[in-house]
Design brief:
The chain is mainly α. Helix content is 54%, strand content 0%. The longest helix is centred in the last third of the chain and has 31 residues, at 237-267.
Length: 274
Protein backbone atom coordinates (compact mmCIF):
# COMPACT_ATOMS: atom_id res chain seq x y z
CA UNK A 1 0.00 0.00 0.00
CA UNK A 2 2.35 2.75 -1.19
CA UNK A 3 1.57 6.09 0.40
CA UNK A 4 2.44 7.99 -2.78
CA UNK A 5 0.10 6.05 -5.03
CA UNK A 6 2.98 4.57 -7.05
CA UNK A 7 5.72 2.04 -6.48
CA UNK A 8 9.44 2.60 -6.82
CA UNK A 9 11.23 -0.23 -8.60
CA UNK A 10 13.23 -1.39 -5.57
CA UNK A 11 10.19 -1.48 -3.32
CA UNK A 12 8.19 -3.26 -5.97
CA UNK A 13 10.86 -5.92 -6.30
CA UNK A 14 10.80 -6.44 -2.53
CA UNK A 15 7.06 -6.99 -2.73
CA UNK A 16 7.46 -9.50 -5.51
CA UNK A 17 10.47 -11.37 -4.11
CA UNK A 18 10.63 -10.59 -0.39
CA UNK A 19 7.34 -12.08 0.73
CA UNK A 20 6.84 -15.83 0.58
CA UNK A 21 3.12 -15.35 1.15
CA UNK A 22 2.72 -13.21 -1.96
CA UNK A 23 4.80 -15.59 -4.04
CA UNK A 24 2.69 -18.55 -2.96
CA UNK A 25 -0.66 -16.80 -3.26
CA UNK A 26 -0.26 -14.40 -6.17
CA UNK A 27 1.08 -13.91 -9.67
CA UNK A 28 3.34 -10.90 -10.15
CA UNK A 29 3.19 -9.12 -13.46
CA UNK A 30 6.45 -8.31 -15.33
CA UNK A 31 5.27 -4.68 -15.43
CA UNK A 32 5.85 -4.25 -11.72
CA UNK A 33 8.56 -1.63 -12.16
CA UNK A 34 6.02 0.85 -13.45
CA UNK A 35 3.15 -0.09 -11.17
CA UNK A 36 2.49 -3.24 -9.17
CA UNK A 37 0.20 -5.60 -11.04
CA UNK A 38 -0.15 -8.36 -8.48
CA UNK A 39 -3.36 -10.19 -9.24
CA UNK A 40 -4.84 -11.49 -5.98
CA UNK A 41 -7.51 -14.10 -6.37
CA UNK A 42 -10.09 -13.87 -3.54
CA UNK A 43 -9.96 -17.64 -3.07
CA UNK A 44 -6.17 -17.95 -2.95
CA UNK A 45 -4.64 -19.31 0.22
CA UNK A 46 -1.90 -17.88 2.41
CA UNK A 47 1.03 -20.21 2.97
CA UNK A 48 1.21 -22.61 5.93
CA UNK A 49 2.15 -21.11 9.26
CA UNK A 50 1.16 -17.54 8.43
CA UNK A 51 -1.29 -17.24 11.30
CA UNK A 52 1.26 -18.54 13.74
CA UNK A 53 3.97 -16.05 12.79
CA UNK A 54 5.53 -14.88 16.09
CA UNK A 55 5.95 -11.20 16.84
CA UNK A 56 9.74 -11.57 16.86
CA UNK A 57 9.68 -12.32 13.12
CA UNK A 58 7.53 -9.48 11.84
CA UNK A 59 10.13 -6.76 11.64
CA UNK A 60 13.36 -5.41 13.14
CA UNK A 61 11.68 -2.41 14.78
CA UNK A 62 9.04 -4.32 16.74
CA UNK A 63 9.85 -4.32 20.45
CA UNK A 64 7.92 -4.52 23.66
CA UNK A 65 6.69 -1.19 25.00
CA UNK A 66 4.14 -0.06 27.53
CA UNK A 67 2.53 -2.82 29.62
CA UNK A 68 4.18 -5.53 27.53
CA UNK A 69 2.54 -4.29 24.32
CA UNK A 70 4.35 -4.13 21.00
CA UNK A 71 2.98 -0.62 20.44
CA UNK A 72 3.53 1.99 23.17
CA UNK A 73 0.04 3.46 23.35
CA UNK A 74 1.06 6.20 25.79
CA UNK A 75 3.77 7.46 23.41
CA UNK A 76 1.34 7.25 20.52
CA UNK A 77 -1.24 9.37 22.33
CA UNK A 78 1.37 11.87 23.52
CA UNK A 79 2.82 12.43 20.05
CA UNK A 80 -0.56 12.96 18.42
CA UNK A 81 -1.79 15.31 21.15
CA UNK A 82 -1.57 19.10 20.69
CA UNK A 83 0.39 21.40 22.98
CA UNK A 84 -1.45 23.78 25.35
CA UNK A 85 -1.03 26.37 22.59
CA UNK A 86 -2.96 24.15 20.20
CA UNK A 87 -0.01 23.07 18.05
CA UNK A 88 1.14 19.65 16.91
CA UNK A 89 4.89 19.21 17.40
CA UNK A 90 6.56 17.64 14.38
CA UNK A 91 8.99 15.59 16.48
CA UNK A 92 6.15 14.26 18.61
CA UNK A 93 4.07 13.47 15.53
CA UNK A 94 6.96 11.45 14.09
CA UNK A 95 7.49 9.61 17.40
CA UNK A 96 3.81 8.68 17.40
CA UNK A 97 3.93 7.66 13.75
CA UNK A 98 6.91 5.39 14.42
CA UNK A 99 4.83 3.60 17.05
CA UNK A 100 1.80 3.48 14.78
CA UNK A 101 3.90 1.91 12.04
CA UNK A 102 4.31 -1.16 14.26
CA UNK A 103 0.69 -2.03 13.50
CA UNK A 104 1.79 -2.64 9.90
CA UNK A 105 4.73 -4.73 11.11
CA UNK A 106 2.68 -7.08 13.27
CA UNK A 107 0.36 -7.74 10.33
CA UNK A 108 3.11 -9.89 8.80
CA UNK A 109 5.40 -10.00 5.76
CA UNK A 110 2.71 -8.84 3.34
CA UNK A 111 2.96 -5.39 4.93
CA UNK A 112 6.73 -5.00 5.21
CA UNK A 113 6.80 -2.88 2.03
CA UNK A 114 4.23 -0.55 3.57
CA UNK A 115 6.22 -0.34 6.80
CA UNK A 116 9.42 0.42 4.90
CA UNK A 117 7.67 3.18 2.93
CA UNK A 118 6.50 4.77 6.19
CA UNK A 119 9.97 4.53 7.71
CA UNK A 120 11.56 6.27 4.72
CA UNK A 121 9.13 9.18 4.98
CA UNK A 122 9.61 9.52 8.73
CA UNK A 123 13.38 9.48 8.18
CA UNK A 124 13.14 12.27 5.60
CA UNK A 125 11.10 14.44 7.96
CA UNK A 126 13.55 13.84 10.80
CA UNK A 127 16.32 15.10 8.52
CA UNK A 128 14.40 18.35 8.16
CA UNK A 129 13.93 18.49 11.94
CA UNK A 130 17.69 18.34 12.48
CA UNK A 131 18.85 20.28 9.43
CA UNK A 132 19.94 23.86 8.92
CA UNK A 133 16.36 25.15 9.07
CA UNK A 134 15.54 23.17 12.21
CA UNK A 135 13.83 26.15 13.88
CA UNK A 136 11.20 26.14 11.13
CA UNK A 137 10.40 22.45 11.57
CA UNK A 138 9.19 22.65 15.15
CA UNK A 139 5.45 22.36 14.52
CA UNK A 140 3.28 21.40 11.56
CA UNK A 141 2.22 25.04 11.26
CA UNK A 142 5.77 26.40 11.22
CA UNK A 143 6.89 23.83 8.64
CA UNK A 144 4.10 24.72 6.23
CA UNK A 145 4.58 28.46 6.75
CA UNK A 146 8.33 28.22 6.10
CA UNK A 147 8.08 26.02 3.02
CA UNK A 148 5.26 28.15 1.58
CA UNK A 149 7.21 31.41 1.99
CA UNK A 150 10.36 29.94 0.45
CA UNK A 151 8.62 28.15 -2.44
CA UNK A 152 9.78 24.74 -1.24
CA UNK A 153 6.46 22.92 -1.36
CA UNK A 154 7.02 21.44 -4.81
CA UNK A 155 10.81 21.38 -4.79
CA UNK A 156 12.26 18.97 -7.33
CA UNK A 157 15.57 18.70 -5.50
CA UNK A 158 14.03 16.96 -2.48
CA UNK A 159 10.45 16.14 -1.45
CA UNK A 160 9.23 18.91 0.81
CA UNK A 161 8.33 18.29 4.41
CA UNK A 162 4.72 19.32 3.77
CA UNK A 163 4.38 16.91 0.84
CA UNK A 164 5.92 14.04 2.80
CA UNK A 165 3.75 14.65 5.84
CA UNK A 166 0.65 14.78 3.64
CA UNK A 167 1.31 11.18 2.56
CA UNK A 168 1.63 10.09 6.19
CA UNK A 169 -1.49 12.06 7.04
CA UNK A 170 -3.52 10.19 4.44
CA UNK A 171 -2.36 6.85 5.84
CA UNK A 172 -3.28 7.99 9.36
CA UNK A 173 -6.94 7.98 8.35
CA UNK A 174 -6.65 4.37 7.19
CA UNK A 175 -4.87 3.15 10.33
CA UNK A 176 -7.33 4.96 12.61
CA UNK A 177 -10.28 3.29 10.91
CA UNK A 178 -8.41 -0.02 10.94
CA UNK A 179 -8.16 0.19 14.73
CA UNK A 180 -11.89 0.90 14.97
CA UNK A 181 -12.52 -2.41 13.20
CA UNK A 182 -9.84 -4.19 15.24
CA UNK A 183 -11.43 -3.39 18.61
CA UNK A 184 -14.89 -4.47 17.47
CA UNK A 185 -15.36 -8.15 18.41
CA UNK A 186 -18.33 -8.47 16.06
CA UNK A 187 -15.98 -8.07 13.08
CA UNK A 188 -14.05 -11.32 13.69
CA UNK A 189 -15.66 -13.30 10.89
CA UNK A 190 -15.44 -10.56 8.26
CA UNK A 191 -12.24 -8.80 9.36
CA UNK A 192 -10.33 -8.98 6.07
CA UNK A 193 -13.33 -7.88 4.05
CA UNK A 194 -14.02 -4.95 6.39
CA UNK A 195 -10.39 -3.78 6.24
CA UNK A 196 -10.39 -4.05 2.46
CA UNK A 197 -13.57 -1.97 2.32
CA UNK A 198 -12.19 0.75 4.59
CA UNK A 199 -9.07 0.92 2.41
CA UNK A 200 -11.45 1.62 -0.46
CA UNK A 201 -12.92 4.53 1.52
CA UNK A 202 -9.59 6.02 2.57
CA UNK A 203 -6.17 5.49 0.96
CA UNK A 204 -7.57 4.07 -2.26
CA UNK A 205 -8.72 7.58 -3.18
CA UNK A 206 -5.08 8.47 -3.87
CA UNK A 207 -4.09 5.30 -5.74
CA UNK A 208 -4.37 4.24 -9.34
CA UNK A 209 -6.57 1.37 -10.48
CA UNK A 210 -3.84 -1.27 -10.42
CA UNK A 211 -2.71 -0.41 -6.90
CA UNK A 212 -6.30 -0.27 -5.65
CA UNK A 213 -6.96 -3.71 -7.09
CA UNK A 214 -3.73 -5.10 -5.67
CA UNK A 215 -4.14 -3.91 -2.12
CA UNK A 216 -7.87 -4.51 -1.92
CA UNK A 217 -6.98 -8.14 -2.62
CA UNK A 218 -3.98 -8.26 -0.29
CA UNK A 219 -6.06 -6.96 2.59
CA UNK A 220 -8.34 -9.97 2.22
CA UNK A 221 -5.31 -12.07 3.20
CA UNK A 222 -4.45 -10.35 6.46
CA UNK A 223 -4.34 -12.46 9.64
CA UNK A 224 -7.47 -12.89 11.69
CA UNK A 225 -8.48 -10.11 14.07
CA UNK A 226 -7.62 -12.12 17.17
CA UNK A 227 -4.23 -13.10 15.74
CA UNK A 228 -3.30 -9.42 15.33
CA UNK A 229 -4.50 -8.64 18.86
CA UNK A 230 -2.40 -11.53 20.22
CA UNK A 231 0.66 -10.19 18.45
CA UNK A 232 -0.02 -6.68 19.75
CA UNK A 233 -0.07 -8.01 23.32
CA UNK A 234 2.72 -10.56 22.85
CA UNK A 235 0.24 -13.26 23.81
CA UNK A 236 -0.27 -11.69 27.25
CA UNK A 237 -3.97 -11.83 28.15
CA UNK A 238 -3.72 -9.06 30.76
CA UNK A 239 -1.88 -6.77 28.37
CA UNK A 240 -4.55 -7.53 25.76
CA UNK A 241 -7.34 -6.48 28.14
CA UNK A 242 -5.52 -3.25 29.01
CA UNK A 243 -4.89 -2.49 25.33
CA UNK A 244 -8.52 -3.02 24.36
CA UNK A 245 -9.65 -0.81 27.25
CA UNK A 246 -7.26 1.97 26.24
CA UNK A 247 -7.78 1.74 22.49
CA UNK A 248 -10.91 3.95 22.28
CA UNK A 249 -8.92 6.85 23.79
CA UNK A 250 -6.03 6.17 21.44
CA UNK A 251 -8.38 6.12 18.45
CA UNK A 252 -9.96 9.42 19.48
CA UNK A 253 -6.53 11.06 19.85
CA UNK A 254 -5.58 9.83 16.37
CA UNK A 255 -8.85 11.12 14.92
CA UNK A 256 -8.26 14.51 16.53
CA UNK A 257 -4.73 14.64 15.07
CA UNK A 258 -6.08 13.71 11.65
CA UNK A 259 -8.80 16.37 11.79
CA UNK A 260 -6.30 18.99 13.00
CA UNK A 261 -3.91 18.23 10.15
CA UNK A 262 -6.70 17.98 7.58
CA UNK A 263 -7.90 21.47 8.49
CA UNK A 264 -4.36 22.86 8.44
CA UNK A 265 -3.76 21.56 4.93
CA UNK A 266 -7.21 22.62 3.79
CA UNK A 267 -6.76 26.15 5.12
CA UNK A 268 -3.49 26.38 3.18
CA UNK A 269 -4.97 24.79 0.04
CA UNK A 270 -2.48 21.92 0.19
CA UNK A 271 -4.65 18.81 0.30
CA UNK A 272 -3.79 18.08 -3.34
CA UNK A 273 -0.09 18.91 -3.05
CA UNK A 274 1.55 16.80 -5.81
Amino acid sequence: MPLDGHRKPAACQRMAAGSDEIERACEVSPGCELEPEIEIEPACEVGPGYEALPVSEVGPDVSTGEAGLVVDLALLKKGFSPTPEGQLLLDGYLDAYTEMNKFFQIMGPLFQVVSTDVQSKVRLLREYCSGEAVVHYHTLHSMIDYETKHNLLTSKAKPSGARTLLRLHRALEFVTEFLVVLVDPTEEGSFGRKVSELYGRTLAKYHGLLIRKTFSGILLLIPKRQTIINRLANGNSEAEKEAMAEMPRVIQTMKDAYNFTQKLYQDNDLLDLP
